[in-house]
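subagent[fold] <- orchestrator: predict structure for attached chain, return tokens only, no commentary.
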Amino acid sequence: MKIEYYYSVASPYAYLGISKFKELVKKYSLEVDEKPFDLVGKIFPETGGVPVPKRHPARQKYRLIEIERWGKKLNVNINKQPKFFPPSDPHKAALFTIASIKKGVHLDFGQVVLTKLWAEEQDISQESVLEDVCKKFNLNFKEMHAYANSEEIKNLYLSNSDEAVSKNVFGAPFFILNNELFWGQDRLDFLEDRIKSSRN
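subagent[fold] -> orchestrator:
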């Protein structure tokens, strides 16, 4: 059973949901097509979304309440206002994550990047931080740097984003199973229900 997984490496909700999603992947032996995308630069402009700093203050305030609530609910350590959000360059970490996927590191690299941002107060726009992530997976940083900046990886980043829009994806994280869409870490229970019914 295959699930398409669209997300931003800077999304707090992708961070909040990744551990539970990985549990589902393991529990049901799921195949995952992992697709990091450009949420702020591509998805939001084409689907009516608004970057956090440009939202009405009431929306910004409530967003922080929700992040804190979900962190407690899921027992996930999260800083609702991390020092380096939004990242000065979210694309760099996304490109490295896509490169890692092509190298065979699935879900884990992206999770560590999210953790750096949302729990460890580290700047995922900095190459030194990404080098540290590469070391965790025994990936040669110089090779990864070159690969992440190759036309192949840049084109995948663009195609992930274009494909997301074409499939009516408008936020992160987004899960697609048999053409059915599930938006957010708070929809993972519904996703599991659909996985179960699809197996019967």
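orchestrator: received. Logging for downstream: The first strand starts at residue 2 and ends at 7. The chain has a mean pLDDT of 97.
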